[in-house]
Amino acid sequence: MNSLNFETKPVSERYATPLNLKSGHVDLSHGSGGRAMAQLIDELFIKHFDNDLLRQHNDQALFNVPAGRLAISTDGHVISPLFFPGGDIGSLAVHGTLNDVAMSGAKPLYLAAGFILEEGLPLADLERIVISMAAAAKAAGTPIVTGDTKVVERGKGDGVFITTTGVGVVPEGVNISGDQARPGHAILVSGSIGDHGVAIMASRENLQFQTSIVSDSAALHGLVADLVATAPSALRCLRDPTRGGLATALNELAKQSCVGMVIDEAKILVKAEVKAACEILGLDPLYVANEGKLVCICDADAAEELLAAMRRHPLGRDAAIIGQVIEDPHGFVQMTTAFGGRRIVDWPVGEQLPRIC
Amino acid sequence: MNSLNFETKPVSERYATPLNLKSGHVDLSHGSGGRAMAQLIDELFIKHFDNDLLRQHNDQALFNVPAGRLAISTDGHVISPLFFPGGDIGSLAVHGTLNDVAMSGAKPLYLAAGFILEEGLPLADLERIVISMAAAAKAAGTPIVTGDTKVVERGKGDGVFITTTGVGVVPEGVNISGDQARPGHAILVSGSIGDHGVAIMASRENLQFQTSIVSDSAALHGLVADLVATAPSALRCLRDPTRGGLATALNELAKQSCVGMVIDEAKILVKAEVKAACEILGLDPLYVANEGKLVCICDADAAEELLAAMRRHPLGRDAAIIGQVIEDPHGFVQMTTAFGGRRIVDWPVGEQLPRIC
């Protein structure tokens, strides 16, 4: 009966002192399943993610769905640095996964989040990330309904890794997949390329550019919904060109669909400051990651209508038709260059930009 | 047109040499989104996880669901060591998440898997983990339909972390939640406790016991399905006592339901070798993690029938009724000890066993 002597408070008052969010740090007890973890979850995650499903404190979330097709996608986020111009690992972890769900044409419904924290991470940094993540999820209308927290020893992680999983519901009549590109289809891109990767590299290298380059990290499901509303049956492939950039996304789609592609360099928007930074950093913007852009492959006769729909949306203002799908058993992506030549835009072989997302 | 000179093979033959699974290592290019990553995904993940949804190479998986309630759960796995008696991080990542889904009474349908790999991880280790994961998913009937791979620099991770997410469908008439325990309800446990945590600690400390202790890591959804079939409306709470062990699971349920509990030490099975190891290691088996056990809280008049159902299942052979729910505004879990006394079984405060799952 000894325990009774030093523990007589009701459960609700069991945390003697609130989390020290100003100068405290993550320690191994925050991942142990005990009281320290319960406090971290209560005072940080549930407080900010704030929704009924999460408040139930179960190890899973339940929600109602209509009969039909669901989309699920998962994405680990290991970006370094954790905070960068235009976002942080929290907002990125929401946008990245939402976008992967949306690229099936689905309306994202819910998110799950798994955190792997490194011992010693300042609680203030974690709070800043959680607040940003909560804001991104709220803005997108996709609550974080379940989660998990693990802590690894100092030197066995890197601050925080966040793996998010999203589920969404695919509208009827939509059949978007990477293997649906056919010769004659048009290739659209929703805006300028390379912004995210260059923003990260610049902040990592501590480069000072005259104009600031900001990540394009954004949730694209609203733009996708507009495209679906405009011409659902004409949409063939959607993909967000993240790691490996536009070049990799196009090569993936060409490979999946067993087609070739010809794109026009002059139609691909690269902001002047991004172009300048790429030159300094020795990067090809075609291979640089984006986090708020999409590639759309569609029937040629719907291309102008879909382009107009993109341009009406704030995230698609600079959209363009950049090329077309051709027959090619080799699956090559070719680019007509500004000088009138043509070159193969190949898969990247090695590592251009590690930990960009 | 230069690229054409050194790249004229069709896409299907682009990997000049197969992955070196014998003596190769993970490097940063395996996370870059380029060809090395595509090869890792093709020759390792898709090869072993092998299912139609994954083979589509999309960034998300689509599947049909009936109208109704879905359950979703996510769990990061950071266990150290990666391989242990009775399993490895791969099988654990399947079982852990399946079990969290099943604890809602749901039938798990699909899994998503996010890998965070450390540069330098032997590909042979990764292959062994992927094969084990594939076998666990196949045995459970829950394919891994989508995934993600990230690579972090040497010293910024620890071999491999795996975050899995599961979705399942909840049968009608089932209403299981941690807040449904009421005074008078019976508390059942499906078997012996402490096996997983002690197996990990023993292999970590390189302890040699006369009898080998093996993790109880197992998928519990079959056992849950039997319980649901037996007395669906009498089932109130299900929880798998993982991190923090039985003591933490009971405290969580007591907190969620605003009730107290009284359990009987004599009814809680701890294997002799686990008990002995706990004494050497200074652990209390009540707080040691399990990965193949469940706590069930149910109406008192259905307890014997549910106990019999548990015992008919191979994973519930040693099930027992260990106590009952009582009224207690303090939310205490009390235990009648073998010596006839009573003590509070409190939340663990600090870290007993880091990285146990």
From TrEMBL, chains A, B:
Top-level division of the source organism's lineage: Bacteria
UniProt xrefs under Pfam families: AIRS, AIRS_C
Domain PurM-like N-terminal, first and last residues per copy: 58-170
Gene3D superfamilies listed in its UniProt record: PurM-like C-terminal domain, PurM-like, N-terminal domain
Domain PurM-like C-terminal residue range list: 182-334
Family matches, as CDD domains: HypE
GO terms under biological process: protein maturation
UniProt similarity note: Belongs to the HypE family.
PANTHER family: CARBAMOYL DEHYDRATASE HYPE, HYDROGENASE ISOENZYMES FORMATION PROTEIN HYPE
Protein known as: Hydrogenase expression/formation protein HypE
Organism: Methylomonas denitrificans
